[in-house]
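Appendix B. One record, verbatim.
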Amino acid sequence: MASVLSAPHFHDEEAAYAFLEARVWPNGPVCPHCGGVERISKMAGKSTRIGVYKCYQCRKQLTVKVGTVFEASHVPLHVWLQAVALLTSSKKGISSNQLHRTLGVTLKTAWFMSHRIREAMRNGSLSPLGGAGRVVEADETYQGRHSTPRDVTTSGRPFIKKGKKGTPAKRAVIALVERGGDVRSFHVENADKATVNQIVSENIARESRVITDESRLYNDVAGNFHAHETVKHSAGEYVRYDDGFSIHSNTVENVFSILKRGMSGIYQHCAEKHLHRYLAEFDFRYNNRVGRGIGDRERADNALRGIVGKRLTYRTTSGG
């Protein structure tokens, strides 16, 4: 980490603006107010703030931060870039308390910075996972407790008695992982058959080979894809081979293990309304992992590519 954070743009504000401009404006400045690309000049003068331009088409001033998750922030840009590097390179995340101590900002500021960066990590891709000859594993897990007591189980069935129908207090998370490819995670109100099958059908290509456990939630999956294989965990089966092809759900289980260790060990508490952003954070790091040839610097650059057009306007909201 020391070698990563030794770069000039982590310590010098002018270098930080130049670094971000090269990534947000690779072809030159673009006015976020009118969309113009011509007649934009960098303002000079001793009293002029660093990185300020003026668009002579709409007559407004701008910086590279306008229209991004960094907009309206009083935190120096080089500190923002440090936070991005730390959050993207920490495999199981980095807490707001740690950012607060490391960056020298207040705890509320560190919390808000981390949520803005998670928003930049959010992909929002609609292209399906898998395809011809590709394998996608699907599974569900439960992480954290609902903020208010519920009278139904995580699958939406009436809660009868503790230990008989599963706890009603857990938050359901569904994940789809393409082997050798991306993961896509969803927080859902109820992990029932209708919800699970809708997510699976909308996010996996029809030509894919889908692998799940023996849960009845996936009973209707078989007819929608090229093949549907199951592993019977209840019978002690965790992998089997079919003509050299391995049938298992270990890939998605590994994704869940990192998620749970991060949520329980690093973040410890997460308000349910923010869970989708934490999922986006863990998905981002998995999709930009070292195993795909992506190092810390490139991972941080990929996060910065997602800062445009995303804003979180609340400022000191607490919880999570």
